[in-house]
Amino acid sequence: MSNHLRKIQKIKIALVLLAAFAFLLTSIALPGRGFARLFQPVASAQTPGAVTSQGGVRDFAPLVKRLEPLVVHISTTQVVEVHRPSVHQLLPGDLFNGYRPGFFGGEFSQGRVRQRSLGSGFIINPDGLILTNNHVVDNAQKIMVRLSDGREFSGKVVGKDAQTDIALVRIDAKEQLPAASLGDSDRLEVGDWVLAIGNPFGLDDTVTAGIVSAIGRHIGAGPYDNFIQTDASINPGNSGGPLINLRGEIVGINTAIFSQSGENIGIGFATPINLAKEILPQLEAKGRVSRGWLGVSIQQVTPAIAGPLGMDQPRGALVADIAKDGPAARAGIKVGDVIVKFDRRDIKEASDLPLLVAQTMPEKQTRVTILRAKKEIPLFVTMGKLKEKETIASATEPGKLGMMVEQLTPQLAQSLGLSRGQGVILTFVEPGGPADDAGLRQGDLVLAIDHKSIRNLSDYRNGLAGTAADKNVPLLIRRGQESMFVALTPAAV
Description:
- This protein is an alpha+beta fold.
- It folds into 4 domains: about 5-40; about 45-290, Beta Barrel (Thrombin, subunit H); about 290-385, Pdz3 Domain, CATH 2.30.42.10; about 400-490, Pdz3 Domain.
- Strands 3, 4, 5, 6, 7, 8, 9 and 10 form an 8-stranded antiparallel β-sheet that branches. A 6-stranded antiparallel barrel has the order 11-12-13-16-15-14.
- The longest helix has 27 residues, at about 5-30.
- Residues about 25-50, about 85-110 and about 390-395 have low confidence and may be disordered.
């Protein structure tokens, strides 16, 4: 082949390579054309009212446009007594900037400060009924509600419930407003996409997206802990705003975040909308909630005691104490029974029971199934009415000794070779706490606190109440066949 033909062939090859390279660049710069189209996911079918898919990327815009008018900005004002902080009480940031109360939302006036707070809410009724968190409007002297179109109205609290942190506010808009569609939070699954709309840090109509990270989360907020955990960004000011599924339904009320800095780190919590729906009729009609009362103190069934109770695995709520002449006592429930079903619904963990009891109306005849002597027994309880200072069901917390105990049931006492009315059993030791430092272990039996005999949980609580935070507390414990004294220094609480 002549040199001339070789040169022509090389030029042709170079032109082909150049054309291919240009085509590739075009595909990258213009997604959806040329070669790049081969790598695009097929667009998912659009559900009416849900998100669309464009170029393989979820498009939330249609959903947001429809839902933004439902979300409101809530600002409140209240006046409280305060003490001016001394220099050593200020944070480093305060010292650097100088202490300017107005900058942080307060104005001093003769020992009183005017506090302002921001939150969110959403319209659930065309006549101007708004659902939000109780902590957003609690103790507010003035409530202002701003709609997404900029109009402002004075708000009035219709009803509130501190136990579930839910409140209803009403505005008079003189016209019908768009109302949210409340979904079914029980249908949520971990991994579902969700949106959050609110006013974090006063930034109106902020939209964030994420997934459901967990459901049924207990964070120590009260007896009705049952939160939806999400990684959709939630920050101060989002409280009371909606958590929304891809069908455009409200499935939760954004309530809290887990953060050491006060800002979002990807762990937020929302109150399930089904919990709110249970109490909305009462809040609107009476302004408060009447709850059922069972009259028991319960504890978790641990693996250590599941066997002696006749269980293959831990389940239910162990009855540790009973209110005298309460509903449970009248129905024949006894200390040591395990409640495995309430109103025909299974109790998987002790924390399931308070929520079910709370949702039951007073005076209702309710079927309760207990496990006693390894047999399931159905009983019928006439529910009482929960008073403000009563508890539906309580369990011991680690507290200032850094440990949790349970009632020594007859079955457990027998399995350990002990007599009834002989101490309480240690079921949890907080790592790094006083009990842990003293060498206490799960399974130890607490026989005395400060030389006072412990027969049951009431004795244990009374013994703790008499201890001082700065003094060692002598405990008499039994471990296996040995008894010994240990000294604990209670942690400050």
